[in-house]
Amino acid sequence: MQLHKKALWNLQLEGNNQVKKMKIKSLFTSDYGMFWVLIALCLFFSLITFEEQQPEGVEAAERLVDKIDAFFDRPQNVIVAGKAGEEGEAFASKTHELLIDRGWKVVGLVNGGPPELGKTIRSAFEENSKVALLACEKALEKLSVLENLRNSNSRIKEMKIMSPQSFGWPNFLKSSNLLNVANQIAVIAILAIGMTMVIITAGIDLSVGSLIAFSAVLCCWIIRDLMGGMEASVWGMIIACLLTMIACGGIGAFSGSMVAFFRVPAFVASLGIMMVASGFAYMLSGGLSIYQLPDSFDWLGRGDDLFGIPNAVVLMITLYFGAQIIMSRTIVGRYIYAVGGNAEAARLSGVPVKKVLVWVYATSGALAGLGGIVMASQFKSGDPKYGLMYELYVIAAVVVGGTSLSGGKGKVFGTLIGAFIIAVIQNGMNLTGVQSYTQKVVLGAVLLFAVLLDTFKKKA
Amino acid sequence: MPKLLSLRSISKRFPGVHALKSVDFEVCAGECVALLGENGAGKSTLIKVLGGAHAPDDGLIELDGEEVNFSNPNDSLSAGIAVIYQEFNLVPELSAAENIFLGIEPIDFGFVKRRQQFQKAREILTRLGAKIDPNRKCELLTIAEKQLVEIAKAMVRDARILIMDEPSAALTNKEVEQLYQLVDELKSEDIAVVYVSHRLEEVERLADRAVVMRDGERVGELQKTEIKKSKIIEMMVGRSMDAEFPANVRNPGSVRFRVKDLSRGDQVRKVSFELRGGEILALTGLVGAGRTEAVRLLFGADRFESGSIELDGVRINPRNPREAIIQGICLLTEDRKDQGLVLCLSVRDNFSLPNLEKFSRYGWLNGTKEDASYRDYEKSIRIKCSEAGQLVRHLSGGNQQKVVLAKWLERNAEVLIFDEPTRGIDVGAKYEIYEWMNRLADQGKCILMISSELPEVLGMSDRILVMREGSVVGEVENSDAVTQESLMELAIGGK
What we know:
Number of strands of chain A: 6
Distance between the termini of chain B: 48 Å
Shape of chain A: elongated
Number of strands of chain B: 24
Structural class of chain A: alpha/beta
Oligomer: heterodimer
Largest sheet of chain A: 4 strands, parallel
Largest sheet of chain B: 6 strands, mixed
Number of helices of chain A: 20
Helix content of chain B: 25-40%
Strand content of chain B: 25-35%
């Protein structure tokens, strides 16, 4: 009986192990296996960029006042000092406000460099017999002017100096850095939506990089020459953007027609369009950057109207949700997968294969146009040199995201993950001071790893 | 007789399928064992285990009483086991001799001794009774000749066990007879032959023993004297079948579908016929007679150059399959894997593909409606799969054909064209497909069935068209007076 039980137990254990093995394996080979890679990368870069952080602004003020509350049992005279600039002023005024609330007497308030600080301290000690505390930012604490004053005057030496407590936090995980990562990848990620669809139909679109340049130049050119340049209205700019996207969509539809109707290999068709579009961009701009634009043109690329999230990132996320819905919930989406899986079987099942192909390339073109507009807005100018080699990063994002180059398989959100993997690696290496040459090597290796994973998936 | 090779409780699992469940199998020198079973019964997996293409999860393989492990096809080949798959393993650009000696070329100082290779190849081909020039490129050989080259390849490697997967499937009758003689000769040279086949007649003729498999299990074995078609069918499907074809009484109505002088190049020449509602019309002839080419014109897969098509009095001219489908014509292609299904999509998605408009509004899919509709067919057609999201690639041939049938049933077409509807599928699924064809005819649909299997043609159709070299050469009402021989005469054109 005992033996029997034990055997049963072993059997169960074995079963569990097997399940575990299967799980780990399927984790990486599943559709969103790359998600875990992304998480691992984030953890890695968080660990190696962990550093002492100085709080700033209002947050610093709150931390400092907490510290003061704990140290002093009664309110006294105090000097408040912050650095010059916006953050420093926010710190000083908040500290000032909180200390007054607690009954402190603020005998000096200063924002600025060593001379201003020295002046304020001296005059405060001339007017008052005793000042108990200098509440200042960390950067001011170590100034030599402070040291000199303390050595010259014993009353000043008695004054306590306090600054906000520092704390440990990874540079990578700072919200400003994360938003920066998202903002920098936005253009590539937007293009990658169209590329994902194209690659799912077993095609490729090499023209998207040049279309960025073409679109940026065209959009800026329309605004400068047709919409009144610096004085262009908001509607003028919107119309310019729409016209640009239509033009890029048209170019995409043209390469799609070459693929669908004349059976030109997608690689060659889009290679041709890539050169043509780049040439157009140079012709239109005369090789120079177009910058005669209204100030508000940078709204899309630099604005952050929704909880401080950059507008480009909001646009990117919205597009991804839209694309996911198209791919999973509409006829067009189903047709795209069918065409990529087996074009002949799809045709014999009544799928309008040629229309689907034209639609897909047109969408890719239009999204490349939108990417170009975002980029023009980020730099507030249109330049024919934009988007150089971007097609390769876009394809890398799609492949890393798990879309199979042989068609029929892939997920839009996989591509978003792929784009973020590339962005996180780039950002992480920037933060840790890795040379840009080395970065290329690492990105190339990541791409190869992703393709290897794809072949393992096929075997599994 | 001593056992040459024996497999003991071999098991093999694939994701979602238990392909082999503790299967025993043994072969003695100089005997021919037939391996039978429905599609998906596990025959192919068993062969692949023998050939080293799959490693078994469990069980052991003994050769001459000693345990062996095959981790790749080379291992089993060097142990004397040669497998000839349906898709041949030949390099088309190389000559017959080069293919025969591929990897074991006679070599002097790094150079191939071409002369010796040529002579040896000719010797062995002659021994096999093949009149093939060893210098001829393999892409120029006929299927039967390629098969002989494969057998020769096995012979020069001193194979003691030859495994053949449906070797007669693509051969002409004369070639099949030669193949039978060759098997007899191999046996007399003490070579064991494992013969996988769907054609039960040839099993009766060839096999010393028949092993029957079902659902990954070995269900039994028949000795030579016990091998009877009815008995085999009973074991394969697990129930006794009254007849190979379901009984039917049909009363075809008026003419609904009219095809007149349809032509395209040399392949289809002035094909005309009429099809009544509730009628099954069989279109037969030899492979290459232009049958598939003709129906592709009806379906808009190719454009016709002249002629006309009329459905219910309305002239139609489909420019592409999409238009034909909208007009109410559908085609179940002969080649399911390349033309009928998108293998990397799920069962459900394949089912929905021609019906998406029905399941959607303004281009938005209604998943619930789609799933519900699929469930109906899954039950009524009895598609065996673990879930609707399963990839259609993983289904057996019979189940794949059922998915194809389901998608067109949902489309509710008026004219259904079945191109070799039962090729490569098992007896049970075959019967069900026949039942569906009868049911559709009873609903008044027009059914056109292309088939090379004459028993099927005679068993199912009301009327028979015979094609030869692109033209219709005969049309006969199906009755007891029509025989396989008379149809074959028409198809071949002999007297």
